[in-house]
Amino acid sequence: MTGRVFDIKRFAIHDGPGIRTSLFLKGCPLSCRWCQNPEGLLLESVLWYSSSKCIACDSCISVCPTGSLSAHPENEHHISICHDTCTLQAECVRICPTGALSLAGTMMTDDQAVQELMKDSLFFEESGGGITLTGGDPLMQAQFSIVILKQIKERGIHTAIETCMYAAADILKQFIPLVDLFIVDLKIFDSEMHKKHTGVDNELILRNFTALADAKANMLVRIPLIPGYTTSDKNLQEIEKFVAKTRDDIPIELINFNPLAKDKYRVFEQDYALAKVRKSFSESELSDFYTVIGRKSPEMH
Predict the structure, then answer these.
(1) Which end of the chain is less crowded, N or C, counting CB atoms within 10 A of the terminal residue's CB?
(2) Are residues 35 and 169 in the same domain?
(3) Domain that holds residue 7
(4) Is residue 76 scored above 70 in pLDDT?
């Protein structure tokens, strides 16, 4: 079984209990305007350019077989990529002396992925941690994710996935016996607004959430605090009311906005809807948001 991975983050402490290793899988069914990991949206690999590492040697341009790279010295990005003609042969990646060019998305077998994840098993045992599949969304590469989770569970390691829950019900059911913690992202409660800002409505998401709760799965809800999109009192309160009505023991965590994502959009030469928002919310503002939903941070329980 093979799948496409775009990152592995070790010593993660915010992706579930204890010290964890997080595997980032390519592909997401949503297209949120504020996505923090735009390199994970597509299932396909993408050529990634970091202008800060570029020394303008132009070696990559000379070896590109499709002429998809060109130089623009007057631009802050010295190299321009035509993604429409790029065939990802990666000659440019191999020749780049500084690593300014790389592929966002690498094929791995399930055995390779598990081997990488288990390198940190000592930390899992000592901290009560484990592995988290995230992305993108692990439900987009469901069978690859399931095979990995089975191998991890057989080793007695805690498993978690972070998901937006937009998948067929029969796919989600296969994950229930393999996942110790479902970290569920709920963003916008109004279905029409959800579709406007993420590309899909949320009816399937809410049905899956209810089914998962009814199955007594261990769940944590996360709401990303995105200025102008998710932070209205009405939206936060509607999500909290839905969660509490579905099952009153499910905690809710509010995730602070991260302005650094705009750097990734520069890499892809894409517009970013929140480029002008330059700072995260303060601790006081975060506390006010928790007051709005009438809850405390899960870390405070």
Answers:
(1) C
(2) yes
(3) 2-43+107-300
(4) no
